[in-house]
Amino acid sequence: MSPEQVERPDGRVELAPGVLLDDPALWNEDLAPTRIEKRTWSTYTFAALWISMAHCIPTYMLASGLISAGMNWWQALLTILVGNTIVLVPILANSHPGTKYGIPFPVFARAAYGVFGANVPAVMRAVVACGWFGINCWIGGAALQTFFRSIWSGWPPLLGGAATMCVWQAPPDGLVPTCTGFVAWLVAGHHPTEWVSFALFWALNILIVFRGMDLVRKVENLSAPYVLVMTAALVAWAVWRAHGVGSVMRDAGKFRTLGEFWPVFVPSVTAMIGFWSTLSLNMPDFTRFGRSQKEQAVGQVVALPTTMTVFACMGIVITSASAEIYGRPIWDPVELVGQFESRLLVAISMFTVVVATLGVNIAANVVSPANDFANLAPGKISFKIGGLVTGVLGVFMVPWKLIADPNGYIFKWLLGYSGGLGSIAGVLVADYWFVRRKELLLPDLYRRKGAYAYGSRAGVNVGALVATLVGCGLSWIGLVVRPLAVLYDYAWFVGAAGAAISYLGWMAVFQPTGVVSASKP
Asked: Could you give the angle at the alpha carbon of 479 between the alpha carbons of 478 and 480, nearest 5°?
């Protein structure tokens, strides 16, 4: 153990008193190791974190894409449960260094990728988080729009009518015309007040981030039980009004054999892993505040797969009952609540949606990319500025278009990006658990001439980048080489395994500077 770091009896490590780290290219207070006295998150905190992140509209609607692909209700839930159980493996593997060393994800990535090479996985992870941030802001904005409409029916057309509906490229004799320009395509079908609601929800997210991580923790702790109770009440109401669970729960689906089910099941499981593939990388952003390894692990194991499955089940039951109540299944809860006649009930329901969406968006889609962007230039970009960058990029990724097609949302957005993030996870797990055997030189993660500079001024571990490219190439090649399409169906698994094996092989052959010195004697 280096004299510049102190290991506590419980295995947690912090910098020794008097160690000076001040390189503005690698250090700021937001990226610095969390002091032991500030690591206060308990089992409940981590469980509440996952409950609040899982209790969101995308989870509620997750089964809709699976059922539309031909699954029945229990097959969809099984797929969600399997995917979220599998993704626990990289989540827990990458959570360990956060709790042990008190470091966020981009700093942890410096061990494998190099002190400056870590910007590659950090930006890759941040980009997908920006997309998710935009998606959840649009959903939260839609909830606010419905809330305002419940208070005053004149709200939607207040600033004018909805823009003309059009598509990017309409087919010949299509019912919807081709858009006259890019702006027309962006705003097609939406009222001006929808953009106001979107902007208000966006601003609320950024405001909370600017107040710091303590407020984030409080928001997660409060939103988790509130959203669970309110959704359970909605389930009870829907079953009571429908006099049963409804037609969707009785539908047998279209798959009669395992051979028919498997080709849809595999890419669907991969997509479920893709749903949390971002968090599988950056859990150190949260576990750095953990009181112990046991508490962070138990909180996550208990909360993640169970909450995802239960909440998706609630979505199925409510949607199935809505088919009996309103004559058609309504998967979007915001649209469903819009059918309610009681303004008070609509207001309460929309407040619940806002709380749920706020909880998941801040934790899953702002905290981590804020650290990732700060890692690009710690001396110039703080956590707060990184959060603002995330918000701006999330808008530019046109989230209202991303979720317009739930089929494309699952089988294109989630499935495709899971391969790239799986490749990063493979490198990180292989490096920390097998190459370094959980031992890191904490001060050197912040030094351009330390062990993780890998003997070069560039501060890059070429082997990690090569392994990541190999993993991405293997997982995405099925998109262009049709005989290898099966690899794309297994994108996350292929990317993670390909990158991990490549990385271990590279490190075994070349043994870059820093690996031996980082190990225990």
From this structure: 90
